Amino acid sequence: MTRTILLALVFGCLAVVPASGASAGTTGNGAPNGSHYTLNIIGVPHDKTADMTGNTGGRIFVQLNGGQDAVSLNGKPSNQLLKVNTIGLVPAPAGESFSVLDANATDADGALFQLPANVSTAWTVWARALGTPGGSAIQTTCASSFLDAVDGVIYCSDQSAIYVLTTGKSLFSDVSADLLFLTTTVDSSLSPNLAACLGVTGVQSVTVSLFNSCFENYFWNYDNHGLKLLQLRFYSAA
User: Which of 115, 152, 154, 189 would you label with 146, given CA atoms 20 to 30 Å apart?
Assistant: First the structure.
């Protein structure tokens, strides 16, 4: 199931604020009150050529028009994944938190983003789009399972966040269910080892948090259709 999020144009400054607990209530832009970590996903018309490994600037560059349809990735061998406009997700080591490890998703290696290991239960994420009205993007959580295939099989979530930028004031929407979890259908007759790992019998829809050990190589697939800027804010759920 996909959810369309209509996000309108607003002008203003973007800031990265240290992550900590968010207080109750919301701000005038629809986001919760409180401190947060901000990640800006920036659509660019030309691929970046600079080495951006270890470039922890709180932003990731993607192709302005590029990326794959997540539905088409389901069932593909993981070694056939084209990583352009993908953002790899890895759990942070103990004592660390959010960090951009590779800011360039326009190259063949894709980008890499570090999140707290317990991000699905301890954090929420809110999104708004900025830029030129008319742009849109689809962001989907995906991962691979190697339990039934040596090369691995890609599973992309049945739920995606769909951003459509219109005119007017841009408001944040809660996209935690789309970006911090993966919901997929598992058939125990086709993937018996994965089904056993997840406790699935027959054909069943399951939802797992990021970094669930039954899957590996988590990533966000970013299918961009002219969206210049997506702003994500992560708030502590405590």
Answer: 115
